[in-house]
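Project standup — Tuesday

K.O.: blocked on the structure for the chain from last sprint. Re-posting the sequence here as requested.
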Amino acid sequence: SFSGAGFGGSLTCSAAEEGSIRVHVANLCDVITGLSPRRLLLKLDVEGEEINILPELVPLLPLTCGIFFESHHGAEGFESLAGLLRRAGFVVTRGGIRDETFVDAFAIRVEAEARLRIST
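H.V.: unblocked you, prediction finished:
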């Protein structure tokens, strides 16, 4: 169920609370695997769960890929995610930091460059 609207909304696995709506959820790893895209532009805005999702997702991404993402775990959490992406051949550009917690970023890799980085 989803409760709230916009900023501050949340999902819960419990029975629907008053004012909430039932929503279908999907496993992003399963969606990407099923689509098998050659190229992908992804906006990942998962309210702090990027730290859990990206480690499983990165190996499934196509070699030509761009990801807009927001880290909710401060500079240290961002650096952990950026390191994961860099090891997979991405170039990571950090945006601004808000409240010492949120870091906006963009990561990109292009097939020819990714093959070279991953093989060396």
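K.O.: great, moving the ticket to review. Helices lie at 28-35, 50-57, 74-87, 111-119. The mean pLDDT is 85.
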